[in-house]
Design goal:
The protein is built from 5 helices and 8 strands; from the N terminus they run ααβββαββαβββα. By secondary structure, it is α/β, with parallel strands linked by helices. The strands form 2 sheets. It has a 5-stranded mixed β-sheet with strand order 5-3-6-8-7. A 3-stranded mixed β-sheet has the order 1-2-4. Strand 1 and strand 2 form a beta hairpin. Helix 1 packs across helix 3. The longest helix is centred in the middle third of the chain and has 22 residues. The termini are close together.
Amino acid sequence: MAFHKHKLKFLTFLTILSLVTCEHWSGDQLSVSEDGGYGDVVIRISDSLDMNKCSQIINSLKSLMTLSSASLHQALFGRVYFRSVVIMIPPEWPASVCGEVSGDHYSGAASVTVTSGDVFHGYYPHTARSEGCGVPGDMIMVPHMWLTTNNVT
């Protein structure tokens, strides 16, 4: 179990680091309430993934963000948590494969993308950066295999 908690803490660290340091996200859609709640954190599911795994990915994301929010809240003495998260599914996927869809399609930029793994990072979450140190990163990439094969619930 400690192995899974370590991975959860790693993703929490990547998420909060990227959200806090990327000013362009906070100006467009990410909001922070007076009580420290990050709102409108956008997670996009890549259309290159198997649509039949949609409900499994969504359930894993919900569990992960709930646990990450609680960890952030505790680690930062109640100052920060995730107030709201938007999960974007590919518009061409039928609602029946995901189990639940709000009906509205969000068109903003995503802070996090659920993808397939890559050669360099394997199946571990990582950040995508187009510039060097001291400049905000572009996005957090979370491979779907990391989400669906690790028990984050």
